Amino acid sequence: MSGVIEVIIDDITQMNVDAIVNAANESLLGGGGVDGAIHSAAGLGLLDECRRLGGCPTGEARLTGGHNLPARFVIHTVGPIWKGGTSGEDDLLASCYRNCMRLAAENGVRSIAFPSVSTGVYRFPVERASKIAVREVRLLLEKYPEIEMVVFVCFGRNVYDAYMEALKA
Ligand code: ADP
Hints:
Bound molecules: adenosine-5'-diphosphate
Structural class: alpha/beta
Order of helices and strands: EEHHEEHEHEH
CATH architecture: 3-Layer(aba) Sandwich
Number of helices: 5
Helix content: 25-40%
CATH superfamily: Leucine Aminopeptidase, subunit E, domain 1
Radius of gyration: 14 Å
Largest sheet: 6 strands, mixed
Number of domains: 1
Number of strands: 6
CATH topology: Leucine Aminopeptidase, subunit E, domain 1
C-alpha cells in the first residue's frame, strides 16, 4: 500500500515531519515568501550550508539539514517562474516534485511536507500547479513505498481549496 496525502493550512516551518521542502530560488541564498520563513526559523546554520551548495538549477533539488527546525532535513527546490505556460513551466514544476521525492527516498525520509511551489512570487496559477503536484505525488508514492506521508501545507484558504479540488480528480 502506498502512502497517504494530507492537505492542511499551516506554516510549513512548524511541521513535525522528516523533511520540509523549500520553494527556493537558484542562488539558494534565501529570499522572500516561504524561503524567508524557513531561513528565519532554521537559523544561520542553514544559510551556511546552502552557501556551500553553489546554487541549484530550476527543476532540481538539493538536501540540507534542518538546523533549528523541527524537521530533520530541508529539501530545496527551485520552481519555474510563470511565463504564460508555454515555456516548459509544467514539466519543470513536475520535475521539482520528482527530484524532491527521489532525494527524500534516498535519505530515508518517511514524511515530507511541500509548500505550493512556484505559486507565490513566481506566479504559477495555483489551480494548475496543485493538479501537477497531486498527480506527481500520487505516482511518486507508488514508486517510493517507503515514503509514508506527504503533506501539502497551504498558506491560505485559496491554496487549500485548489489542492482539495485537485485531490478530487
Ligand atoms: P515561489 O517563489 O516558488 O512562488 P513563494 O514562497 O513566493 O515561492 O510562494 C510559494 C507558496 O508558499 C505560496 O503559496 C505562499 O503563500 C506559500 N508560503 C509562504 N510562506 C509560507 C509558510 N511559512 N508556510 C507555508 N507556505 C508558505
